[in-house]
Amino acid sequence: MSSNPSTPSALQGTLRLPDWGVISASGPDAATFLHNQLTQDFSHLGEREARLAGYCSAKGRLQASFVAWRGDEGHTLLACSADLLGPTLKRLSMFVLRSKCKLADAGTAVALHGLAGPAAAVWLGDAAAAPPWAKAHRDHAQIVRLPDAAGVARWLLAQPADAPAPALPVLDGEAWRWLEVQSGVPRIVAATAEQFVPQMVNFELVGGVNFQKGCYPGQEIVARSQYRGTLKRRLQLAECSAPVAPGAEVFHSADPAQPAGMVVLAARAPDGRISAQVELKLACLQEPGELRCGDALLTLTELPYPIPAEAA
Q1: Would 278 be classed as within a structural domain?
Q2: How much is the pLDDT for 26?
Q3: CATH number where 52 lies
Q4: Distance (Å, whole) CA 209 – CA 14
Q5: 177 and 95 co-located in one domain
Q6: Measuring CA to CA, how many Å separate 52 from each of 5, 187, 310?
Q7: Which of 267, 262, 275 lies closest to 303 in space, CA to CA?
Q8: How many C-beta atoms lie closer than 10 Å to residue 299's C-beta?
Q9: Confidence class of residue 211 from pLDDT cuts 50, 70 and 90?
Q10: Domain span at residue 291?
Q11: How does residue 236 score in pLDDT terms, banded at 50, 70 and 90?
Q12: Of 116, 150, 183, which one is at a domain's C-terminal end?
């Protein structure tokens, strides 16, 4: 575990996640159905692991992204942005057909909490030491270890909706979202649905795409982007001089009439800094000039993981 004992108190604690929702997939064909629809391997999803996965359109664009794991009673749970749960559930249900798979909104039964920092690690005990994307249990809760962000350890906790919240300080929602931005792991929201091929937001670099599994909607386009060297856009981190919002277009001063990219996620840190994940044309990284999103000036910062030279 790499949590920093000097983590500010504003980045420690827990909160129930109002902007996340949960879809439940159950039945003997659930794993096969998800395997055939999403970018990740669900046929071999273990009991002690979680996986990042995407749901693509036929054009290979991400319609939603998920953190997925096996819950109690054999159900597979898929946590996604709450503003996409309804349309995603409806669209996935169209393709169940004769499969023995039942999809449902699990929000009334399952509560999602975000946990962060050393205080959360102490509360979690042995479950805190798991590596990223591992899953552990505590009583009737499932705990997914998320990648660190800004040196802060994070977890996603799923428990019965009527269970008491973890006995931890309340974490501000904006602080949690800032950590999410800093992790470099994108989350597709309604404002960015169908905007990005997975590689455009580094989805394969953070474990969201399995290139050895079988077909899924958009798979041919995703594979072509991976193997033909045609990728011209990547997710970057930036600090912003003013607030920005997901889906807002970013412009470069060298070509102010043509969008250079789009905001993926954005949030304000406890110290007032505004950070954003920005999908950006790689050519902009070589051009002198300024990046702007509305009134905000964007200054690129370092991602927590490398982009391979052949991908950049």
Answers
A1: yes
A2: 96
A3: 3.30.1360.120
A4: 29
A5: yes
A6: 28, 10, 23
A7: 275
A8: 11
A9: very high
A10: 233-304
A11: very high
A12: 183
